[in-house]
Each structure stands twice: as structure tokens, then as C-alpha cells.
Design a protein that fits this description.
Length: 158
């Protein structure tokens, strides 16, 4: 009987020890929580899922595509000229990336691996066209609209 009691005490003691250890683990868990929080915050800093196609903005973008000289070097679906064909560009690149390429092509070509690769292929550096961030958004909307139209067409063909 005595033995049993001392076993119970021992077990109790072990449980206590374990729960102390549990405290420490909790701490590290809350550290994990912190990191998780940071990751979530970083996620939130990223732009949200792109807004739906805005036709008015896309139309403005189409105009800018011509007036800002993009059209001199890029077609959309008519093949490569001085620069890459921009058909499908909103599918193959992140929208942020496209924005950076439009706003700071000279920096991208120095620092960004994809832009460096494009330069190696096209052997021309895209010049900075003095596009404002708002104008870049309109151009991106236009490119997105083109890509969604192209997708619909190919779906109709099937
Ligand atoms: C003088 C020619 C020229 C003009 C003008 C020009 N680009 Fe470019 N563009 C290029 C070249 C060359 C590349 C690829 C090499 C590089 O990144 O510099 C490129 C790359 C791009 C890319 C990346 C394409 C891909 O396949 O990932 C985008 C997007 C782009 N240009 C958009 C624009 C827009 C929008 C404008 C107008 C505001 C514009 N470009 C004006 C020559 C030009």
C-alpha cells in the first residue's frame, strides 16, 4: 500500500516536472506563433489578389500603351519585335514584377534575374518611359484584359 502511494507521488512529481517542461515548450510555441504572425504580416503587406478587370482603366491603359511608346517595341500577340511579345505576360509574371519592369526597367535589368535573362535574349535594354505608378496600373489592367480575352478565345475554340 505504501509503495502504491509513493508510486502515485512519484508519478505526480513526474507529471509536475513534465508540465514545467511544458511551460518552456509553450514559450517556444509562442515564439513559433510570433514567427507565424510575422509571416502573416508579410503576406498582408503583399498586394491582395488583383482586383477584377476594370474596363475603363484598361482603356486608359491601351491609350498609354500607345502614347508612352510601348507599342514601338512590344506587340500583344503579334510576335517579338524589339521587345518581347506581351501576350500572356500577366500569366507568366507577377503583377508586381510587371509594375517594377514598367516603372524601373533600368534597375530591373541590373538586379532582377528574369529581366537579366530577357536582356540576354533581346540584347536591348528597355528604356524608362517615365510612367507614373497610376499609369502603370492602367497599363497592367490593359495587359490583364488582353490576356483574359485571349483565354476566352482559346476556350471558345475548344
Ligand atoms: C525601346 C524598346 C522598348 C520600349 C519603348 C518599351 N519596352 Fe518593354 N521591353 C523591351 C525589352 C528589350 C525588354 C526585355 C529586356 C529588358 O528587360 O530590358 C522589355 C521587357 C518588358 C516587359 C517584360 C516582358 C516579359 O516577357 O516578361 C514588360 C512587361 C514590358 N517590357 C512592358 C513595357 C511597357 C508597358 C512599355 C511602355 C511603357 C515598354 N515596355 C516600353 C523594350 C522596350
Amino acid at each position: 500500500m505504501k509503495r502504491k502511494i509513493s508510486t502515485i507521488i512519484l508519478v505526480g512529481f513526474i507529471v509536475m516536472l513534465l508540465s514545467c517542461k511544458g511551460d518552456k515548450e509553450e514559450k517556444s510555441e509562442s515564439e513559433v506563433g510570433e514567427t507565424k504572425k510575422e509571416v502573416i504580416q508579410a503576406e498582408q503587406l503583399k498586394p491582395q489578389a488583383p482586383p477584377p478587370i476594370n474596363e475603363v482603366l484598361a482603356e486608359k491603359g491601351e491609350e498609354l500603351f500607345k502614347t508612352k511608346g510601348c507599342i514601338a517595341c512590344h506587340t500583344i500577340g503579334k510576335g517579338r519585335i524589339t521587345g518581347p511579345d506581351l501576350a500572356g505576360v500577366t500569366k507568366r509574371r507577377k503583377l508586381d514584377w510587371i509594375e517594377n519592369q514598367i516603372l524601373h526597367p533600368e534597375v530591373m535589368v541590373e538586379k532582377d534575374p528574369i529581366a537579366k535573362e530577357l536582356l540576354a535574349t533581346y540584347l536591348v535594354k528597355m528604356p524608362n518611359q517615365n510612367v507614373t505608378p497610376e499609369e502603370a496600373q492602367a497599363i497592367i489592367m490593359y495587359l490583364r484584359e488582353k490576356d483574359s480575352e485571349a483565354k476566352e478565345e482559346s476556350e471558345h475554340k475548344e
